[in-house]
């Protein structure tokens, strides 16, 4: 059965593009677009909408991290980095600029397929939840969040956020004043079948705090209880 997810692959290695294109088509993905450069990727994004983007870090006409930031201005589609740069710093940088996952070269193409399916599955589950069941609007003194509209407003201004950031925020809004370990948050928000590490949670919480205007050195909304976990403390004013 064909999967109609629209996939954009950005990599300057033609061999990698061909290998992924062949593997994905064998695994029944039928809508695949490839780009060799940053310029080609941005052009493709203007012409089409994509459900997931595979992005190399080292491109001939620009840095993949910078491109990720630019892409985030246009779409909230999940971004999976594929790169030969394998240090923890590179992985954390990729997540901090808007990436959802990071896989290092060389890789097994079937592992890439597995990660794509896991990310898309989580994305579809989230969209179904907010589209069919989640009608509640969360209103607080400093921000409001409407899951069914995927709309976050902070101090009256609309703030762009990725699907994963909104999913994390929804988790916190539904569980106020409860303490969760990092591993538990990862399990409940990312899912046990998604590849990654617990530091992914830390990076996404830091990004979410910034968008909520929650001071990183002394946060009051998403609080870190050292050695225990995280707790969401709603700003003054109940959700309704």
| Fraction of residues in β-strands | 15-25%
Number of separate domains: 2
Radius of gyration: 18 Å
How is the biggest beta sheet arranged? 5 strands, parallel
Q: For the record, what is the CATH homologous superfamily label of the largest domain?
A: Response regulator
Tally of extended strands?
A: 14
In what order do the strands lie side by side in the largest sheet? 2-1-3-6-7
> What distance lies between the first and last C-alpha atoms, to the nearest angstrom?
42 Å
> From the coordinates shown, what is the CATH architecture of the largest domain?
3-Layer(aba) Sandwich
> For the record, what CATH class of the largest domain applies?
Alpha Beta
Mean pLDDT score? 87
Anisotropy-based shape: globular
User: Under CATH, the topology of the largest domain is which?
Assistant: Rossmann fold
Structural class, from secondary structure content?
Answer: alpha/beta
- Helix amount: 40-55%
Keywords: DNA-binding, Phosphoprotein, Transcription, Transcription regulation, Two-component regulatory system
Protein name: Response regulator transcription factor
GO molecular function: catalytic activity; phosphorelay response regulator activity; transcription cis-regulatory region binding
Pfam family, one: Response_reg
């Amino acid at each position: 059965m064909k999967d109609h997810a629209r996939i954009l692959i950005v990599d300057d290695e033609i061999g990698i593009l061909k290998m992924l294109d062949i593997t994905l088509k064998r695994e029944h993905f039928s809508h695949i677009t490839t780009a060799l450069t940053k310029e080609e990727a941005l052009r493709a994004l203007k012409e089409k909408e994509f459900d997931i983007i595979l992005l190399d870090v080292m491109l001939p006409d620009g840095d993949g991290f910078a491109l990720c930031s630019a892409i985030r201005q246009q779409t909230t589609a999940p971004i999976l980095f594929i790169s030969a740069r394998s240090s923890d710093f590179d992985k954390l940088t990729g997540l901090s600029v808007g990436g959802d996952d990071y896989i290092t070269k060389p890789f097994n193409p079937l592992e890439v397929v597995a990660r794509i399916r896991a990310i898309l599955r989580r994305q579809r589950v989230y969209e179904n939840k907010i589209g069919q069941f989640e009608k509640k609007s969360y209103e607080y003194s400093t921000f409001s969040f409407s899951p069914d509209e995927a709309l976050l407003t902070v101090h009256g201004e609309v703030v762009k956020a990725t699907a994963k950031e909104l999913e994390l925020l929804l988790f916190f809004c539904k569980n106020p004043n409860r303490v969760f370990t990092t591993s538990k948050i990862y399990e409940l928000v990312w899912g046990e079948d998604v590849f990654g590490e617990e530091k992914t949670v830390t990076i996404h919480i830091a990004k979410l705090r910034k968008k909520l205007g929650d001071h990183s050195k002394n946060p009051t909304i998403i609080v870190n209880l050292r050695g225990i976990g995280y707790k969401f403390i709603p700003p003054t004013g109940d959700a309704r």
